[in-house]
Amino acid sequence: MSDQTSTAPQSRLAQAWDSDFAYSFRRSPVAVVSFLVVMLLVLSAIFAPLIAPYDPFDPASLDLMNGFTAPMAANDFTGDTFWLGTDDQGRDVFSTILYGMRISLFVGFSAVLFAMVLGITLGLIAGYVGGWVETLIMRAADVQLTFPAILVAMLIFGIAKGITPIEHQDTMAIWVLILAIGLSDWVQFARVVRGATLVEKDKEYVQAARMMGRGRGIIMLRHILPNVLSPVLVIATISLALAIIAEATLSFLGVGAPPTQPSLGTLIRIGQQFLFSGEWWILLFPSATLLALALSVNLLGDWLRDALNPRLQ
Q1: pLDDT at residue 260, rounded to an integer
Q2: Residue 175, SS3 per DSSP
Q3: Measuring CA to CA, which of 67, 102, 180, 226 is 20 to 30 A from 220?
Q4: CATH code of the domain covering residue 18
């Protein structure tokens, strides 16, 4: 009996490893490499306090004499050496990238989660309830789609920051940024979930749930929602890359993360000021990190879309 119990987890792991999903992943070098890059960057951001050789946002640890030190070159005044060089304030670029990724990833994941919850909720309601409720929700979605998402995010960010007290603007800037990106990205979730709900709500298992006296909320959450999640997961993966880029764009434009909590976009904005004066590393390394992160997430989302598409099985 004990032997059967001890081998049960291994058998489940073996079944998962031999599944079509895992086989498709193993057979795709692009998916494997993208997954490894994403995991490396995410883990580096999570454990930034342990990996980073310096705390770049601790004023007590900064030395202006280390400013504009080239990568792997000794500073002319202090003799200190930094892997990826330093910026104008003497901050280690490698450390700033690790801490900046934490902000970018936190904003990206939180914004996508907020957009997904809002879009799924409105999509389920629009598809199942129908009538004037569906018309109101979908017309609002159509109106929002007529504007570029980055402009919608900037508008929402400006309005939210305008009604926030001045003394709390820096502390609330990250949450306002999440709100702005999330509200600009819920439409695609709502449209996909509404279309899938329209198909699912007339199937026999939903009609059986109605005959059993189940309420609308129970039917939508317990019966319809699990059957419409596959396309939502694909959209969420691709939206993560778009949310990270949107955050970087807003921060680059100076309306995103505050200087006290710089993200990758803020670091790129700082770096481009010194590009033509010869300090290329201040811009290059944060830009390359953002490119690797966004590209890897996008490629992983493309593979996930193909893997979950039943027509390609």
Answers
A1: 73
A2: helix
A3: 180
A4: 1.10.3720.10
* Site of tokens 């992943």: 25
Number of domains observed in the structure of the chain:
1
Nearest to 85 by CA among 271, 252, 260, 289: 271
Is residue 264 packed enough to be buried (19+ CB in 10 Å), middle (13-18) or exposed (0-12)? buried
At 86 the three-state DSSP class reads strand
Residue 30 to residue 32: CA distance in whole angstroms: 6
Those residues whose C-beta lies under 8 Å from the C-beta of residue 95, and which sit 6 or more positions away, are 48, 52, 53, 54, 55, 56
Q: Which residues in the chain come in under a pLDDT of 70?
A: 1-11, 309-313
CB 177 within 8 A of CB 250: yes
> Tokens representing 19?
């599944």
Residue 98's closest CA among 150, 160, 46, 48? 48
* C-alpha 121: how far from chain center: 20
Tell me how far apart the alpha carbons of residues 145 and 186 are, in angstroms, rounded to a whole number: 10
Residue 237 domain boundaries: 2-312
Provide the pLDDT for residue 182: 92
Report residue 49 as tokens. Answer: 């306090």
Q: Smallest Cα–Cα separation from 93: which of 52, 40, 121?
A: 52
**pLDDT for the residue numbered 57:** 78
Question: In this structure, are residues 258 and 200 in contact, taking their beta carbons and an 8 Å threshold?
Answer: no
242, amino acid identity: L
112 in Cβ contact with 185 (< 8 Å) = yes
Q: Is 142 exposed, middle or buried, given 0-12, 13-18 or 19+ CB atoms closer than 10 A?
A: exposed
pTM beyond 0.90: the answer is no
